[in-house]
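FORM 7B: Structural annotation worksheet

SECTION A. Query
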Amino acid sequence: MNIFEAINRVDTTSLVLSTGQKPESRKDLLVVGRLYRNDFHNSLLDVSANRDAFISDDAVILPGDGGRIGVAYYDTETFLNTTHRIAEGIAIDPIGKQWSAGPWLPETFASDIDSSIEIKVGTYLDKKEANVFSVYPEELRAGIIGRSQAEIAIKSAMLSGEMDDLTRKFTEAELCLAALRLVYAQYRIYFRGIKYEPFTRLELPASVASYTAKLVDGANPNDIDLSLIYV
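SECTION B. Predicted structure
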């Protein structure tokens, strides 16, 4: 039984999207259906009969010879609430995840939804209805710009004071992340995080792309160009 058959057996009503930087790989799936997340996770583990499978945060991870498959799940109400809170600029703060070296960013989630491939239309929801991110929402843009400008001011003030080396490194990294989020929001381009920034910077004007590259490579707050930020 392949993964799509297993998902359909657990929840026949579900919408199945292939997400990620290369959605055609179909290694990262997002499922939206009628079950509660824990019920879906446990049922998928039983149906897949993969002894190496495990649950990590919001996804079931299924290792195999063909590589790892991650299956994230939302019930329909939670998914729609999450997407609309992001689109409306309400849920804009980075969130730490146990499986990630960096924070989860709402604009990355928005990009995943927008760039996803619809594998299966849901009974109650399809991609066209689910995707509120086909155009960068203005409220999301305004929220990220305002939040990032505040973060830059706060972290810059902190760095002018005394702190231990480890705290300083974290603060510098958070400051650079805020600057990157701000630049991408200004140009209405979804920031996908540090890992994929070399790809997403290709959508930026050349002068701005060279600036973000410098920030990513050096993570030096002294490289932050305030003329690009406060526009």
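SECTION C. Observations
Residues 29 and 71 are 5 Å apart (CA to CA). The chain has a mean pLDDT of 88.

SECTION D. Sign-off
Analyst initials: ____
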